[in-house]
Amino acid sequence: MTEWAVTEGLTSYPQALEVMDRRVSAILSGEADELVWLLEHPPLYTKGTSSRPEDLIDPSGIPVFETQRGGQFTYHGPGQRVAYVMLDLTRRGRDVKAFVCALEQWIIDTLASFNVRGERRPGRVGVWVAHAGPDADGREDKIAAIGIRLRRWVSFHGVSLNVEPDLGHFGGIVPCGMSDPRLGVTSLSRLGRTASLTDVDIALAQAFEQRFGPIRRIASPV
């Protein structure tokens, strides 16, 4: 059974990395169960292993952290639900592509609870929605990013879902390398959906259990 924890308030990125590192080691040694950890970060940028220096446009005082996850630059901050997934793919099938697709579908199922149609796109990891408004004209917006890393087939890092973050902070980077002007970022709030983080957490838990199996709620790891 997968343990499920929620941390209230803001968690620093170095602290989150430390918790994930300890937990992955414990899972590998058989001393701990799998864990999904929901949290919020203060405003920060993370630099994935495929990042290009030119994609950091103007951090404007927002700290930038090197990270071992796949992908490029992304933003984390208040109003965004981050879900770090520490799951054992040896037990779940050693197929990275299928695992990423399952994470995307988890978010798609969660969005459906708020009457939002999330979609995946070939060649673009994450979850996308049609751009809303009179200037739509084939534009698409990313509402959830995915970046993972595996250590001996145990995953860490995970997904981030935009609930009501300051979308202006995405302007300091080329998010996930998306330089095409037809591709942007959005949130549940921007789409007109009024949802608290608690509402989103409930939907995430229900969708996770349907796709990955039962959970057991535990106290925050920090």
Defining key terms:
globular, 222 residues, 9-stranded mixed beta sheet, 32% strand, alpha/beta, 3-stranded mixed beta sheet
Explain how this protein is built.
The chain has 222 residues and is an alpha/beta fold. The chain has four helices and twelve strands. The strands form two sheets. Strands 1, 2, 6, 7, 8, 9, 10, 11 and 12 form a nine-stranded mixed beta sheet that branches. Strands 4-3-5 form a three-stranded mixed beta sheet, with no helix packed on it. A hairpin with a 2-residue loop joins β9 (140-151) and β10 (154-162). α3 crosses α4 (197-212). It starts with a strand and ends in a 5-residue tail after the last strand. The model has no long low-confidence stretch (mean pLDDT 94).
List the SSEs and their pairings.
Blueprint: E1 2-10, H1 13-28, E2 35-40, E3 44-47, E4 64-66, E5 73-76, E6 80-86, H2 89-92, H3 96-112, E7 119-121, E8 124-130, E9 140-151, E10 154-162, E11 183-185, H4 197-212, E12 215-217
Parallel strand pairs: 1-2, 1-12, 3-4, 9-11
Antiparallel strand pairs: 2-6, 3-5, 6-10, 7-8, 8-9, 9-10
Helix pairs in contact: 3-4
Total DSSP E strands:
12
The radius of gyration is 16 Å
Shape from CA axes? globular
Taking all residues together, what is the mean pLDDT? 94
Structural class call reads: alpha/beta
Low-pLDDT stretches are none
Q: Could you give a short account of the major beta sheet?
A: 9 strands, mixed
Query: Into which percent range does the helicity of residues fall?
Result: 10-25%
What's the end-to-end separation, in Å? 21 Å
